[in-house]
Write a structure and sequence with these properties.
11% strand, 1 helix, single chain, two-stranded parallel sheet
């Protein structure tokens, strides 16, 4: 979806457990706890970790 215009929850067709490179348009990939910890340093990230407004 990175290459296409902005999307919303209305575009979600299914939630899947798959590798990042196997995602298809309309899929939302489940982010496992280990990946959340690696990316954010906590199992429960909050708004304070956001770099946006």
């Amino acid at each position: 979806m990175e290459e296409e215009p902005a999307h919303s929850v209305l575009d979600v067709e299914r939630v899947v457990r798959c590798e990042e490179d196997l995602e298809e348009p309309g899929n939302v990939r489940v982010v496992e706890v280990a990946e959340v910890l690696e990316l954010s340093g906590t199992a429960r990230p909050g708004r304070e970790l956001s770099s946006g407004p």
